[in-house]
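>> received
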Amino acid sequence: MSVNLTIELIQRIVPIICVFITLIGCNQTPTVDTQAEAEKIRQLDREYDAAVRAKDLEKSMSYYAPNVFQMPPDAPALRGYDEIYKMNKSIFEDPTFLFSTFTPDTIEVAASGELAYDRGTSRLAIKTSKGRIENVGKYVAIWKKIDGQWKITEEIFNYDKPWASLKP
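>> returned
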C-alpha cells in the first residue's frame, strides 16, 4: 500500500468517523432529574394553594397555561385562561367562599422532563346561614414545561359528596 493511498484512505475515513461521532452525540437525550422536577411542582402546588387561600386571583392564575382546559364539577368545561379567570373571579368575590386547598398525593414527571401529572385531594369550605360546610374532593392536573416554566394545561376536579346534599 502506497503512502498516497493510505493518506487518501485516511482523508475519506476521518470525516465519516467525525459524522458518526456527531450523530451519536446528537442522539443523546439529556438526563432529567425527575424527582427534582416533581419537587418543583410540589412547591408550585404550595404556592398555588396559598394564593387561592388568600383569594389572590392574579397569583393563582399565574400557574395556568394560556390554552388551559379545565373540567370543574357540575359545570361545562372551561377552555382557555380567560374562562377560568372569570370563574375564579366570581368564586373569590363570593362572600360565602371561605377557602379551598389542594394537597398533592402523587406527582409523576415524564423522563423527558416536559410533562407531569399531579394527583391529590382538595378541600373546599363555604359559609351558610347555618354555619360552615366543607367538602373533600380530588383532582388531577397535567403540567407542561412552557418556556422553561411549569404551567397547568389540563385540570379536572370533583367532590366526594354532591353539594346539594350538604347545604342546609
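>> The radius of gyration is 26 Å.
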